[in-house]
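Example record for the data management plan.
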Amino acid sequence: MIRQEKGSITPNHFIFCVACFILSSPLVQAFYISIIKQESWIAIIAGFLAFIPVLLLYFSLIKSFPQKNLIQINDLVFGKTGKAVSLLYIWFFLTIGSLNIRDVVSFVSINILPETPPVVIGITFIAVCAWSARSGFETLVRHVMFFIFISFLLIISSTLISINNMNMENLLPVFSQEFAEYARASHVVAAIPIGEIFIFLLFIPFVTGKHADIKKAYFFGALIGLAGILIIFLRDILVLGDAITIAQYPSFETQRLIDVEEFFTRLEIFYALAIIIMLFYKTSVIIYAASLGISQVFNLSGFKHITISIGAIALIYSFFVFETTAENLEWGVDTASIFSTLFQAVIPAITIIVAKIIKRSGA
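Corresponding structural encoding:
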């Protein structure tokens, strides 16, 4: 592997890397809410359970190819075709990155800087992300535990402050929809955001410790991240009720309603800042992954000199991937889970099967 880091990270640190990546996806709430409305919390739990077999698939790759990352595994299993498979993965990472850039640009344009041209917001955001990715994985994730601490502090504090605005009846009715709708929503949850932690298969060689420790870190990172997402959904549903189906950013609206003795008000500003920080982390990791992947596929001497170019490509991609927010929502509900599953589960499963065939044939 083209080693870009002088150091490494521990399995405990890796837990927070994975958890933070999942927690960086609260702006896709509408994907699940549009399917089963205020019962979306059910999909969060079911989506995690549905993803466990896929996580076991990742564990199998980690065990079968110790100290190898995704690009190296593709080369070992598929030979010359492996580079084509790796390029498909890189395109997938760039697609995820462009969607996250679009999310943060839309969020900031609508809620914070409505007078600022979106392209200015996008250029500023991606410049910071590309600069961060250029510093390398170890430096990039150095402050991830601080991000997680701040995120959970905001989640828990805003939940406690919102108790007076909560209504338990907003959770009712339960299981009022057809099973197919719950299955569809759970599939979306399993793919977005849980399945996106597939990207960390690129960083396994940077994690110290035994295979068992790395696998536990992967699992508990996903569990912690989903726990945070579940708390967010339950809070927003209890506060907003049916109104959650018409709010473009439910969590932002929940924060706006907080008013404690006219002292704790306008807390949505802190939420907006947290969202930007978390999406900065996620987008930086994605740009780093794409840059590292390209450097390995084409045997480049390093990745730092291409991070700006990769960031620019992702930014341009973000402005053309969807014309409207409604189109983005439609894609997220109907197509995103199928598209993502191909990369997150189907191709990894094929990789394991081919690897086992090669091993048995003694090739």
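Summary line stored alongside the record: The chain has a mean pLDDT of 89.
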